[in-house]
Amino acid sequence: MTSEPIANRIVVRRLQEWDAASVAQALEFRGELTLTxxxxxxxxxxxxxxxxxxxxxxxxxxxxxxxxxxxxxRFEVNYHLLSLQLSERIRLKVRLSGGxxxxxxxxxxxxGANWHEREAFDLFGIQFTGHPDLRRLLMPDEWExxxxxxxxxxxxxx
Length: 158
Hints:
This protein has about 160 residues and is an alpha/beta fold. Helices cover about 20% and strands about 25% of the residues.
């Protein structure tokens, strides 16, 4: 766990220098840095994190959606990134309202996001604009609803 202030972390410092609007909030818990990113800034911020020569977050290890129903914003989409150059992991968090669960696809930045985004779409109903092949991954094509949403009926579709 690092004892330096969050503002001094190289990731936060580089993002603030690049575009102060790219990070809405920076938190650290148990040594893990979480950056809350506005939805509108996600794609360009992700591209910066991957291509910046001092950061090089070249590996997207996971995308994990969270349904916070009945709270709003209802959904969080968490991107878990790794920089081999810095030996550091960070989490990007984007919040989405329940009435508009739409977010840009990051497949143009990390091609490995393809199946992660398809899984989030299939199980949570989150739409990824610009995704090359957004369709169900685990559930049958004719399945109604999104089974990992908290308001999905426990006994299955009716």
